[in-house]
C-alpha cells in the first residue's frame, strides 16, 4: 500500500470519527425533545382534569343548583268539571269548544257532541331563604272527557278528598294595631308547609296549650301519579 492510499484511509477514518458523535448527539436530542413534548402534553392533560374536577366540586355552584331545585316545586292544586262541545276531529284527537283544547277522542265522539271534561290546575311553589312561599297557579288544562256529568263527578271524587285529621300546631299569637287585637294560629300541613289562620279569642284560649289540632283538609291528588298529593286547609274540625 503506497503513501497515498494510507493517507486517504486515515482521512476517511478521521471523518467517520467526527460524524459519529454528531449522529449520536442528534439521536439523543430527538429522544430528549420527544420526552419533553410528552411530558408537557401529560402535564396539560392533568391540569385540565384538575380544573374540571374543581369546577364540579365548587361548593357555591353545587349549593346554588341544589337550592334552585329545592326551592321550586309543582303540586296538584285543583280540579273542575266543565261542559263542552266536540269541534274538529284530528286523527285520534278532537278539539273541545269553546277554547279549542285538544283531547284524545277515546270515546269516538262526533263533531257537535256534548261532553264533560275534567280540567286540572297545578301550583308552582317557590320558597325563599326566609321560608316564605310564593304560589303561582297554572292555567286550567283539560285531561279527560266523559259522556255524562255523573261519570265525570265520580272520577273527580277520587282526586279530591275531604277528610278530618289532626295536624301539628306550631303555636298561636296576637298582634295589636291601632287598638285592635287579632289572633292567629300557625299550623303545619302534612306536606310540611306552615300556614297561618286567623282565629277568634275563644279558639285562641283553647289552642294555647295544645300541640295537635283537629282540622278539615282537602287532599288533592295528582291525576298521573295518585301517590303525589297536596293538602289544603278547609276549616276546623268540630
Please specify the SSE layout and strand pairing.
Layout lengths: L2 H54 L2 H13 E19 L2 E5 L3 E4 L9 E14 L5 E5 L3 E6 L2 H11 E18 L2 E9 L5 E6 L1 H7 L4 E10 L7 E8 L2
Antiparallel strand pairs: 1-2, 1-4, 2-3, 4-5, 4-6, 7-8, 7-10, 8-9, 10-11
Task: Describe, in plain words, how this protein is organized in 3D.
- This protein has 238 residues and is an alpha+beta fold.
- The protein has helices at residues 3-56, 59-71, 149-159, 201-207; strands at 72-90, 93-97, 101-104, 114-127, 133-137, 141-146, 160-177, 180-188, 194-199, 212-221, 229-236.
- Strand 4 and strand 5 (133-137) form a beta hairpin.
- It is flat.
- The chain starts with a helix and ends with a strand.
- Mean pLDDT is 79; it is low at 36-69.
What structural class do the secondary elements suggest?
alpha+beta
Q: Roughly how many Å apart are the termini?
A: 134 Å
| β-sheet strand percentage | 35-45%
Described by the principal axes of the CA atoms, the overall outline is flat
Mean pLDDT: 79
Number of strands: 11
- Please state the CA-atom Rg, rounded to the nearest Å: 40 Å
Q: Show unreliable segments.
A: 36-69
Order of helices and strands: HHEEEEEEHEEEHEE
Summarize the amount of helix as a percent range.
25-40%
Counting H and I runs of at least 4 residues, what is the number of helices? 4
Largest sheet properties? 6 strands, antiparallel
